[in-house]
Every structure is written in structure tokens, then in C-alpha cells.
Amino acid sequence: MARRWKTTFLAAPASALVLLSSTSLVCAASTDELLAAARKEGQLTVMALPRDWCQYGRIIDGFKAKYGLAVEELSPEATSEEELDAIRAARDNGDPQAPDVIDIGLSFATSARSDGLLQPYKVSTWETIPDAAKNTEGYWYGDYYGLLAFEVNLDRVSRLPTDWADLASPEYKESVGLAGSLGSNHAVQSVIGAGLSATSGRIDGAAERGLEYFAELNRRGNFVPIVGSTKSVLDGRTPILIRWDYLALADREAHRDKARIEVVWPRTGLVAGIYVQAISAHARHPNAARLWMEYLYSDEGQLTLLGGHCNPIRFDSLVHDGKIPVSLQERLPDLGDEKGRIRPVFPTAKQQDRARETILNGWDGIVGVTIECTPPEEAEPVPMSLNEPSTLVCAAVQ
How many CB atoms lie within 10 A of CB 9? Predict the structure, then answer.
């Protein structure tokens, strides 16, 4: 599967050994020194990493087994904004329940850097990360991306939709849901995708046209205003769910015995969403955080992401070096059609910032419906930290 970046890389500084206790660390130290410093800290704290998201469960377990560190998993279902709020709480109140590392949508990265919430670090594989997907100073960098798709339960829907316009058909009344709350990266990108379909791929005006699209979908009674999930796809509340393809593909594999799930990539308005990694400026375990980054961006970590249907950011490098097994290559989505290959759009951080503001400010007045969380008794079970209260939250809403 061809990738969509022209990769011109920044050269990493020649000197690789720096004081591990310094928050100004910007390049990789030797593995032995980093591991020794991380083991003195004893653990890593992560947040917003559902175990079924990009095979994060396997990645976390692999990290623990390889380096002998404990990993505390806070609020796996948290949003990108909640991750940043947790860092602010650590900064302002000394709250110990805060992540050392974060996994956030690209649209949140610039503001997090501006707010002083991040510290720089350049992993040893820095040169193989495309320039377009990283902060030049090392404050954040893309780790993987997904494509927005339609997850469809064919036991509940008789005809597969092929594009955004199809979702407005009368046959899909009370059928279409979003896999995220309004402020989530998931939902914002979905509105952008619908708008891009209406603007023939032009990002200017896509947020406004996307709001109009969901207003019409709601007016027709096709939009189901709940945070959709695997459960709502299976039980028919949202038999068509707009969500990242890696989650939809994982559902198709995991629930073959429960439903005929198909994954459809829209023919227009195909959005690629980059998720980035960063280290908290107030990390209690900064060296464990740096070791975690090294693991995520190693060949092993990147291939594990690919095994979870996520597109690793170092894909081109892995292909060039012949590192991708045939079994994983065969799992990549076929985006071709009779008119040629469908090309996804990668909105930049600035474009997403502008779109996010437009969508958050305009949703109530234009679409006019509140997206509700799933009631606790109906929600999918989500693994929680032992220190986390069991409160109502929306699952998988990054």
C-alpha cells in the first residue's frame, strides 16, 4: 500500500549522550543508560490507551516484559483533551494521577506545546519519521494514522453505503452514529470528512459544509445522537458507525460469530487522522517515558501497530528495509476502485484547529442535537486503573 508523504528528513544531532535527568533532553541516549535510569524510576504511567486500540494491550505488555517496568494504565477511554487536563492538574496541583506520556490527536499538539505541557525528546529513529508528521524540536511526533470509514452491520442494513451522501438515504433512518463525543478528535474529523466530500476535497469550508451535512442527517432522522461503540453496532442502535478503520477492522475480526460486519472507505472525503505521541513536561517518570517512546518507534513497536490495522508513521522506512512480513502487507486496506486509487486527505494541525473551533461553536446552532454518552449499564466494559473512580464516561472517544 503506497503512502502519501514525500519524506524529507531532519538530521538528528550527532551528540547522543545527555543528562537523563534534564527536561531539555532532545535526542536519544544509549539504550543501556536509558534503561538503567528508567528502572530506577520503576514504572511508567500512561493514559487514554484502550487495549483494543491499535493493539495497545500487546504493546503495553511487550514493554513490561522487555524492560521489567510496571505500567499504570489511567482512564483508557479518556479523550485527548482530558489527557492534557491531567497534565495541567499535575502542573498546578501536583496531582500524581497524571500521565508521563500522551497519545493525542494532531489537532491538540500545537496548543499543548504552546501551553508548556510537553518536553522535547528525539527518538533514535527520528530521521525515519516524515517531517510533515513531527515538531522540528521534538516536542511531539506522529506515531500512527487511521482512515475514517463506515463500520456496517449487514445483519441490520441490507445495502452497503459507499459514500457520505448515501448515509442520507431513507433506508438508513435511525442508523448512523459517531464513535466519539463532540469534542473528540474522532467526531471533529468525521465532520471534516463529510464536509470534504461536499467540497470535492477542499479543506476550506469543509467544517461548515460538514455541519450542514450532519444537520440534514439529523433532520432526516438518520443520525443517532449517542457515542457509538462496538456494542451499538452489534445490537443495532448504530448499525452504521463512522469510526477509524483500525477499530472497525478489529471488530470485523473479533465478532465474526456475532454479526456480518463490513468496513467501507468512502469514495470521497476520505480523511486520514494522525495521532501523535509526546512526553509530559511534568512527567514523574521521564526516563521511563523516553524508553516508552523508543519502544513505540522501534521496528517492533511499529509493526505491532500495523498488526492492529493502524498505519505506522515509519511505514516507508519499514518497507524500504524489507521489515514488513507478507502476512501484515495482506491486511492493508485496498483503496482502489474502477476510477483509480482513492487518495486520503491529511488535514494539518492548523487546519484542524480552525475546523475544531468552527465545529464546536457551530454544532448546537446548526445541527441542534446533543450527542449523549452510553448509559453505564449499556456501556462496553473498559479496563480502569485501580485508583480510578467508576464514573460515567464515553468509551473510545479520542
Answer: 13
Phi, psi of 291 (to 5 degrees): -65, -40
Q: Do 192 and 206 form a contact (C-beta atoms < 8 A)? A: yes
Distance in angstroms (rounded) separating the CA atoms of residues 398 and 79: 4
User: How many C-alpha atoms does 100 have within 13 Å on its Cβ side?
Assistant: 23
Give the whole-angstrom CA distance, residue 230 versus residue 224. 14
Query: Is there a contact between 43 and 37 (Cβ–Cβ < 8 Å)?
Result: no
Please name which of 106, 50, 396 lies closest in space to residue 277, comparing C-alpha atoms: 106
Whether the Cβ atoms of residue 394 and residue 187 lie closer than 8 Å to each other: no
**Amino acid 21: pLDDT:** 44
Task: Answer whether 176's CB lies under 8 Å from 194's CB.
Answer: no
CA-to-CA distance for 59 and 295, rounded, in angstroms?
A: 9
Amino acid at 19: L
- Which stretches of the chain score pLDDT less than 70? 1-29, 331, 334, 336-341, 374-398
Q: Cell match 491486511: residue?
A: 331
Q: 75-114 burial, b for 16+ CB within 10 Å, e for fewer?
A: bbbbbbbbbbebbbebbeeeeeebbbbbbbbbbbbbebbe
Query: Can you give the pLDDT at residue 7?
Result: 29
| 72 Cα distance to chain centroid | 20
- Got the DSSP string for 83-96? HHHHHHHHHHH--S
Residue 303 burial class via C-beta count within 10 angstroms: exposed 0-12, middle 13-18, buried 19 and up = middle
- The DSSP secondary-structure symbol of 128 reads G
Q: Residues 189-199: pLDDT tens digits?
A: 999 999 999 99
Q: Cα-flanking dihedrals φ and ψ of residue 391, to 5°?
A: -115, 165
